[in-house]
Amino acid sequence: MAAARSPIVRTALFLTGALLIAITPLVGIIPGPGGIFVFAAGLVLVLRNSVWAQKQFARAKRRWPRFGHYADAALRRRSARRRRLRAEEAKIARAEAEVLGFGDGTR
Fold first, then answer.
1. Is 61 exposed, middle or buried, given 0-12, 13-18 or 19+ CB atoms closer than 10 A?
2. Of 15, 19, 46, 84, which has the most beta carbons under 10 Å away?
3. In tens digits, what is the pLDDT along the chain, a chain of 107 residues?
4. Contacts of 13 (CB under 8 A, 6+ apart)
5. Is the whole-model pTM more than 0.70?
6. Helix 51-63, helix 34-49: angle, nearest 10
7. Are 84 and 72 in contact (CB under 8 A)?
8. If you ran DSSP here, which 8-state letter would residue 100 be given?
9. How many CB atoms lie within 10 A of CB 86?
């Protein structure tokens, strides 16, 4: 978070996010993908303004890594970008090692 927000603003944003998550089923019955966007907006507000929610989200990502990958990508988190870049660099390094004759890299 770039600037510290007052506790009142953080609480208001958290409650707005929780409200958006709560009304997602109502929006979900309307044709189209609106419910997904309402849920995502609510999730972003909750995660940005609640330490408890961030810890629960991290726990869920550890338990279900595939969920965490897609959630991070959807939320455009810097940590997801770093992991993706590291994976690409590791893939390139393995390919270079194989070309140079160092084997497959497993022990």
1. middle
2. 46
3. 445 678 899 999 999 999 999 999 998 888 888 888 898 899 889 988 999 998 998 898 888 888 777 777 776 767 777 878 888 999 999 999 889 888 665 55
4. 5, 45, 48, 49
5. no
6. 120
7. no
8. T
9. 10
Residue with token string 């978070």:
1
Token readout for 9 is 């603003």
End-to-end CA distance of the chain: 42
Retrieve residue 11's tokens: 């609480």
Side chain identity at residue 90, one-letter code: A
From residue 75, give the alpha-carbon distance in Å to each of 42, 54, 57, 60: 11, 13, 12, 15
